[in-house]
Structures are given as C-alpha cells and as structure tokens.
Amino acid sequence: MPNSESGEDPLTKKDAFRDDKDISFWDGIARSELRIKKCNACGIVLSPGALFCSECWSGELTAIKASGRGMVHSFVVYHRAFSENETPPYNVAIIALEEGPRIVSVVDGSDRLQVGNIVEAVWLSTPAQCPALRFAVVDDTGRKKEN
C-alpha cells in the first residue's frame, strides 16, 4: 500500500524493514542467503530476529547460514494484496526450517499448498535491488514443483 505522505510503496524501498537489531539477516538477504541465529552458550538455533536465547537467556548469538529448506507448518491464502508487489490470491506460510526455527514467507508456485509440504528458499529480484526471500514447494526428488 502506498504511503499516504510520499505516495511510495514502502516494500519497494531497499531499507524498508531493516534495522540494526537484525543486520546479519538483511546482510544475508542481500547475498541471497537465509541467516538465522545460534546461541553460543547452549547451541540452540533461533529465528533471524532473536536478540537473546529463549532457552538460556544468553545474549551471545552468532548468525549462521540456514539450508533454506523447511516444511509448511501452517498457511493462509490472501485474496487481497498487502502491497502492489503481490497479485492475489497468494500463500503466506509459517515455514519450519530444517534447523528448527520457524519463519513467515510467501510460498510461490503452488495452488495446492498443503501443511507438510517440503519447501526450499528461492530468491527474486526486486525494484529495490535487494533479493526477496520466498519459498517454493519441492517434490519427493527435491526438485521444485511446477504448477
């Protein structure tokens, strides 16, 4: 949705959602890498935006590169666009990454998305010249499914 003051869509701006708390995540996105956090104290793997460990409360976290593979935990189908970058209907899913954390993302290319589908990260070009993270369903052989 365009900003009423500037008339610009905030999702097309390169730094629309970036802040210093999750800079390692956004630096990874710029390199087409999905980065998550790992606790240096207890080893648990956490979501990208974690500021401290949810198990031991340590603030000593390291950004690690995720595999980019996961499973659909839950999803919704949007019939109205959140921004002009999406054409309804489209899926937004909670993805349980292989490493453990869950993230929210659009899942492309499947009008028959199901809970339990295996998905893999894909990277799209954007007007902001920063790759956009999305996921695509993969088949039993590990290849991305065609519609």
TrEMBL record:
Name this protein carries in UniProt: DUF35 domain-containing protein
Domain ChsH2 rubredoxin-like zinc ribbon: 26-61
Cross-referenced InterPro entries: ChsH2_C, ChsH2_Znr, NA-bd_OB-fold, Thioester_dehydratase-like
Organism placement in taxonomy: Bacteria, Pseudomonadati, Pseudomonadota, Alphaproteobacteria, Parvularculales
Domain ChsH2 C-terminal OB-fold: from-to ranges: 65-123
Gene3D superfamilies attached to this UniProt entry: 6.10.30.10
UniProt xrefs under SUPFAM superfamilies: Nucleic acid-binding proteins
A Pfam short name: OB_ChsH2_C
Superkingdom of the source species: Bacteria
